Each structure stands twice: as C-alpha cells, then as structure tokens.
Amino acid sequence: MKQEYKSGFAAIIGRPNVGKSTLLNQIIGQKIAIMSDKPQTTRNKIRAVYTSEEGQIIFLDTPGVHKPKSKLGDYMNRMVEDALREVDVILFLVDASEKLGPGDEFIIEKLKDIKTPVYLVINKIDKISPEELLPYIDKYSKLYPFAQIVPVSALHGNNVNRLMDQLLLELPEGPQYYPADQVTDHPERFIVAELIREKVLHLTREEIPHSIAVVIEQMKAREDHDNLVDIYATIYTERQTQKGILVGKQGSMMKEIGKRAREDIERLLGTKVYLNLWIKVKKDWRNQEQLFKNFGFHDEE
C-alpha cells in the first residue's frame, strides 16, 4: 500500500538571533534567508519550500519577537501573530547557550492562546555539554506542553533530519503545493535585495543595520551578452551620517558591500552579474507606513 503524501505549513518563531534563518537555510540546503549576528535580521515572512518523496513542508520564517521601537517594529510583531494562525505546526526555536529569559516567557504566553501543535527546537547544542541539555529541557517542559522537543545544531545540521521526519509525521495528508525544485515563493528580486542587505549588516557598525532598506530598481539580462545580468539597486538609510558610513573612505565600504553581494547573487542566479549600488537618505522611513510598504514590507492577504 502506497504511503499517503503529507503536506502543510510550519512557522519558525523565537527571540531575535536564535538561529531561525540558519535553520531554514540548513533545511532547504541553500541560502534564501539572510544570516547575521545582529538581531532582527529577518523582516518579512520568508516562505521556504521543503520537498521529499514523503511530503512537502512550507516554512514561514518570522521576524524575531521583540519589544517594538517603531511602526516597522509593530508591523514585524503583527506578522509573527499572523503566522501562528495560518500554520499546521509551530517550531519554537531557542538558543541552548542562552538562559531562559523574559523574551522566551513572553512567547510562551502567546502560545498558550493557540491550539496548534508546538515543537520546542533547542538550537546551538554544539555550544553546550550533553549534561547541560537535560536540565534545559526540563525547565522549558514545566512551562508548556510541547508536542515534541528536538535538540539541533542548525549551523552544522545535527539532528535536523530527525526534525524533518517528525514534522512530516505531524502533517495531514495533502497535495504538493509547489514543484519539487522550487525552494521559495519569493521572486529572485526579493532574495537579491536581501543578499545586499545582509552584506550591509555584516560590514557596518551598530547604528546602521535596522535603518536600511534595499530596493531593486532594475534587474534584467543584458541583451548583447549571453551570461550577464544587470542589477541596479538603491540602499535607503535614515541619516546623512549613515550614508557617509555606507560609502566609506573613497568609496571603500560601498565597493566591499558590492563585491560580497555580487558573489552571492552570482551563485544564486548562476550567471555573471553587473551590480550598481546607490545610496539615498529617507529620513525616519521606519515610522512612515507608506514608505516602508513601498520598500517591500507588506501585510499578506
């Protein structure tokens, strides 16, 4: 008798910087969500698609739950709450190297209001000893009746296959929503913009990261060249001083951002890329709803 095909939706939630994007990229096997050591890296719900012979799981990688300091922050928290209502299973990701804190307790309180099965996924187990893991599990188990508890190392892939097997068992019988070779429902332009933003996060000081947005103005294959894509992108920031940091001495920072972004984009597209970056100042854009929606932050229908 042929085994039934499973499919469904899973949300990955957790405090900022616990490794949600790293886990998503490990599951899918390629970079579709940007990674950084700075919190709140993820701003949009990233849909990623995992397909096997047994089934298909569509993942939502949500922004880290945090105390909002701007209208954009409020919007990011709303996206998390929306995600919890539209999935079949929730992965609550925590960092094994960090103590249970107010942020984790805040999320657990939110989870108590929903009926969706919740998995506790304990990430970064490579950073602690096996003896430390059981007390950690015990502490969380007393706060919430998790459907499953799965320790993993998202960075190294430890136990990620077991997590995927367990998720497929959890999901209902259903159709294959996306073609087997599709790993995200985001257009390439979105991922290209995210890769550029990732390089800014890696290379700039603390005052820059959350004040930038990247917009792809134009992206098309060059007509007289078989293997070259022209990409014109604008990096928006909030203050003139931030623009100076992004440009760098004699344009050095902008050149390095462009060089690193181009290498990742070429791997994504499988072609040579001409990348042209501009920087523009839009004062206080994070508190102007029309502006941040223009920059690609949209509520989902």
Helix content: 25-40%
Q: What is the H/E order?
A: EHEEHEHEHEHHEEHHEH
- Count of DSSP-assigned helices: 9
Strand content: 15-25%
Q: Give the termini distance in whole angstroms.
A: 39 Å
CATH topology of the largest domain: Rossmann fold
Query: Which class of secondary structure composition applies to the elements?
Result: alpha/beta
Question: What count of structural domains?
Answer: 2
Just name the CATH architecture of the largest domain. 3-Layer(aba) Sandwich
The gross shape turns out to be globular
> Could you give me the name of the CATH homologous superfamily of the largest domain?
P-loop containing nucleotide triphosphate hydrolases
Question: Strands, helices and their partners?
Answer:
Layout: E1 6-13, H1 20-28, E2 46-51, E3 55-61, H2 71-85, E4 89-95, H3 102-111, E5 118-123, H4 130-141, E6 148-151, H5 160-170, H6 188-203, E7 213-221, E8 228-237, H7 240-247, H8 252-269, E9 272-281, H9 289-294
Parallel strand pairs: 1-3, 1-4, 4-5, 5-6, 8-9
Antiparallel strand pairs: 2-3, 7-8
Overview of the structural elements:
The protein is an alpha/beta fold. The chain folds into two domains: 6-170, Rossmann fold (3-Layer(aba) Sandwich); 188-294, 2-Layer Sandwich (GMP Synthetase, Chain A, domain 3), CATH 3.30.300. Helices cover 35% and strands 22% of the residues. Strands 2-3-1-4-5-6 form a six-stranded mixed β-sheet, with helices on both faces.
